[in-house]
Amino acid sequence: xxxxxxxxxxxxxxxxxxxxxxxxxxxxxxxxxxxxxxxxxxxxxxxxxxxxxxxxxxxxxxxxxxxxxxxxxxxxxxxxxxxxxxxxxxxxxxxxxxxxxxxxxxxxxxxxxxxxxxxxxxxxxxxxxxxxxxxxxxxxxxxxxxxxxxxxxxxxxxxxxxxxxxxxxxxxxxxxxxxxxxxxxxxxxxxxxxxxxxxxxxxxxxxxxxxxxxxxxxxxxxxxxxxxxxxxxxxxxxxxxxxxxxxxxxxxxxxxxxxxxxxxxxxxxxxxxxxxxxxxxxxxxxxxxxxxxxxxxxxxxxxxxxxxxxxxxxxxxxxxxxxxxxxxxxxxxxxxxxxxxxxxxxxxxxxxxxxxx
Length: 357
Ligand code: NAD
Prior knowledge:
The chain is an alpha/beta fold. The chain folds into 2 domains: about 1-100 and about 270-355, Isopropylmalate Dehydrogenase; about 105-265, 3-Layer(aba) Sandwich (Isopropylmalate Dehydrogenase). The protein contains 12 helices and 14 strands. The protein has helices at about 15-30, 45-50, 55-65, 90-100, 120-125, 165-180, 195-210, 225-230, 245-260, 295-310, 315-330, 345-355; strands at about 1-10, 35-40, 70-75, 105-110, 130-135, 145-150, 155-160, 185-190, 215-220, 240, 265-270, 275-280, 330, 340-345. The strands form 3 sheets. Strands 2-1-3-12-11-4-5-10-8-9 form a 10-stranded mixed beta sheet, sandwiched between helices. The chain starts with a strand and ends with a helix. Bound molecules: nicotinamide-adenine-dinucleotide (NAD). The site of nicotinamide-adenine-dinucleotide has 21 residues, from α4.
């Protein structure tokens, strides 16, 4: 099969980490008989420098014409003082909107061989952790009605958490698609003991799963309990679906369990198979151009693209196994370096992972 992949390298370490991911994808193509065609488009600061716009039309058109999109990172000191509308980060918000992406998938994976990097006790994480949080991205309290005024108690302000059945169903579908490729278990996080919107969330998730994915076992967890369980027993979770605000908070908490920002990927999906895949970290301008960045988050983002956009589950697994082997052999980039291990640069790390495919 041939797949067209739009690559938005972006700024800082973006081009280095994307090159690493492309190297690994090329090896996957060779090994499994696929063809990946890469087209590069500008986004962020480099696009501002050339086009005066963090997201030129050419980039939007290229992404919409592709089968999926791989993004490095945007931003840097040079553009920090520009007006908000032409800041590099605006390019990110606009591309998500142009591609109509309403979900954000953030796997917080702690590899067994890096268990000591976790701030949690070794006994809790020694077998590794992988919590995949599927967060609704375009609804809920961040987009609901809001306002402020003055009353008997002085100044006040309010925001609204509002979800429709359709919004809940479509995010549940994305979580279910993931759960069927994994352990067929789904945890839905809400605050149904207090919030009316959460009661609708819970009812809709159950009805939707029973009708469309009866093979998936659904468990409800209240958000306050979830926050505790992530630090108490993180390995009990697999795929988790939740609202915008709860997902925002819980995905950062889960990421901390892994102890390393250079190892975490994320994706955004909408109604089509075309997604936006990226590392969760930024453009790391402090280390850009020195071949010391960790490319693993971006390589994992590319692996997620294979699984979730192209349904290449075997190829996804091959990348994960290759990363595991390279870590087991003791290779580390500077950010995850430990005593007694072998430090390698960004390019070498990607080469080693490609060799193990
Ligand atoms: P950052 O994630 O870029 O860097 C935080 C720290 O982590 C730095 O010390 C950096 O060197 C290190 N780091 C990050 N990724 C690494 C990797 N792959 N390997 C090794 N070390 C890594 O966050 P920041 O410094 O707050 O932001 C820098 C720029 O990135 C800013 O302009 C910010 O707006 C932008 N940003 C972009 C995105 C994105 O493109 N999605 C996300 C966050 C921040």
